[in-house]
Amino acid sequence: MKALVVDDDRVIADLVVFTLRRAGHQAVIANDAASAIRRWHEDEPNLVLLDINLPGAPGLEDGFAICKRIRSESNVPVILLTVRAEEEDIIRGLEAGADDYVLKPFSPRQLLARIQAVMRRFQATNTSQSAKLSIDGLDFNPKLREVTFANESPKTLTQLESRLLESLMINAGQVLTANDLISDIWGAGGGSSEMLRQLVKRLRSKIEVDPTNPHYIQNLPGLGYAFRLKR
Amino acid sequence: MYPDRRLRRLRSQLVLTFLLSSLGIGVAIGLPVILLINRQASSQAQLILDQATLTTQAFLASEQADLQNLALLTSQRPTLIRLLGEQDASALESYLDTLREGADLDLILVCAEGREVEGIGENIPMNELCQSSSQSGYATLSSGDDLYLYTVTNLESAESLYKVVVGKRISIILMELQNETGLLYFLVQKNQVILSSDPAIAIAPTLITTLQNQTNQPENRSLGQRAFELNAHQYILENLAIDSSTDINLINALNVDNQIAVQQGITRTLTLALFLIVLVAFGLGVWQSQRISRPIVDLAEAAGKFRQGDLDAPVAIQSSVLEISQLANTLEDARITLQHSMEQLQAEKASIEHLLNSIVEGMLTLDSQNRITFASAGVGKIIEREPEQIIGHKVDDIFVATEGEVAFSNQLPSAGQQRRVSIKLINSQERLLSISKANLIPPVASDANRALVIRDVTNEEYIHRLLGDFMANITHEFRTPLAALEASSELLLDNLHSLSQAETKDLLVSLNLGIINLQTLIDNLIEASSIEAGRFKVSIQPVSLEVVLKEAQEVMQPLIERYELRLDIAPVTESVFVLADQRRTVQILVNLLSNAIKHSPANGLIKIKHAVLADKLRIEVIDEGSGVPVEQRDNLFRRFSHLNISNERARQGAGLGLSVVKAIVDAQQGEVGIKDYLNGGNCFWFTLPLAGEGQL
Q: Mind listing the domains of chain A with CATH numbers?
């Protein structure tokens, strides 16, 4: 596996690269936005580890913008590696299509575990032969990450959204705890309940007629989430 | 309603009353007296006239009796009888003439059988008189301007019956009468004035009409009215009928010039006296009314001053009128009491206002229509307007809600609660206010029913947010060196036995760099906190430039190497000393180098240059980074608490390091700045004062 490490702090970048190489992966470094995009195109990495605060370039003022650019070209896993972990940052990260969010300072061991979980998920999704799911007027194709309801044109979900909806629909009618869902989506050690909350919100905005009064995805406070079977 | 006007009216009323009453008394006393005097004069004159008339009557009667006697005497004269018998006419005539002269008669006539025997008298038809049958009477002269009073006596003789007639001219009698009584007489026969006792009086044909009109006027009329003026004399008249058969009247005229003069004199004196009395009474009245009304006017003025709130002038009103004096005293007592209470109230009000104005929080009261009824000085300071200017205005016009918010009055908290409301000032700046509300039970005088206590929390909120941002930023800044520490130490521990020596060294260098970065950060944080707390001090002493540069290089060399950069420090050819705090000056260089490292591209060159100027040393730190945009340069060195919090980029651009650099340079009497450099790199420069010869 080849990873692209984007960080303006060379010490950190070197330590991440060192960690990856010790685990048998290849890694390339970019210290600013411009070189990040250049490396992305030249080295075609299987994974991107992205810092948010770094010297920008026109149209690419920060890590979120880089993530969006990458996401517009590929669904290669992107993990944000940053010192910022406020709600606002998580939302922006999910909006930009990041797959996971790792806060500095980090443990190289845990970073590897998160990287492996994300990669496993990615491979599982990409090789998934899941049949189409259809419940109560909502049609979902996990392979294409396309969702259709109420005769509207199909909408494309992000990988995380697609994973969340798949888990919920497969287990429709049952309550899934937040921890179950987090490990399903981000793998062991990844994600957080705040990230899940934001993800559910984003998914609802795509599949619910009225996201403030959701029909499909039910929240059962203290228990978890459930996909409603029938009206 | 002006007290002055009313009281002036009162004074005129008093004057008028005095005037009328004195006039009334004058008239009531004077008029009867004048009438009485008039009446009295009239009566007296009448009395005189009556008596004179009686005298006249008596005089005429006695004249008649005298004539009778004379006639009898004459008839009994033997000589007359003899002469008659002798029938000697001339002798008779001379005898009769002698008789006439002796008896002072105007007429003497002897008739026989109705015919004149002999007679002496002027202008009289003797035969007619001889034929008269009456014993006495008045006979008219042929000239028509006089009468004879005559009497007839029979003379018995042997031969025949004779009649002897003697008479006297009335004009003569009237002259005698005038001498006797002092009256003026007019003889009137058949409505014609025949003669008057005063020959000086011309008898005009119209005289009779006037005489008849004025005769026998009622006694109660005044002399002036009754009087008849003739030849500049005033007369009162009385008619005396002396012979009804021949319609002869005698009009008695009394001269009343004196009486009228006396009466007019008295009347004049009396009128003058009355006028004087009225004048004096009027004067007294005016004086008295002045005396009464003056203190009342003063009282009214004093009360007027009370109404205007002027309680300082004492009510010092002197009046001889007891009630006014009492009123003035009562008013003065009331004034003192009121003044005392007012002073107390004023003092209390002043202390409350002082209290209200001295607190930073603004006090505002509103009425039921949301109008401002009171605003303390604190409100004025918060909204940057004069409190007087906003009173009476609608609160929503003064406290304008920010865009997208409902009106200020609808954002107020419920009573006893607190709420934050943002408003827009007239200079369109925004303010965040903390508002607490209390409901008032309005007194009758004011309908303020709500009180608001307003506190400007804009700065509090700003500092609060700034502090929050600062804490968040600082936390983030710590995370990067900590990440290096955590990652390198874990890698070292986990792979202790499998790492090559070069790898171990690399990890140890990373560990070291993390520690250096952490150290720099902590140094800056300590300085920043002492700057913020105002405890920041530098200890200035001569410092060698070479030493400072060397120390900074030692600190930063591992980073330079690790980042594969090059550092080029211009050599110090001669010894240069600056006045500075050595440790802090190293800190300046470390911060500037750290900044340069962060922005340098791979294999970049960082240069440190210096130049000795007239009295200072200038040091430049130059990198090959992308450079700081011009619009961000102003904020670059600002202390973090002064950064515009809305400018996310500027805040992120300026780390703690540069603000600490700025503070240290300022404290060392130097300057700091950034300028463009070749190929868009950064050039940060600062100056230090050179140490003089004597300071080494």
A: 2-126 (3.40.50.2300), 129-227 (1.10.10.10)
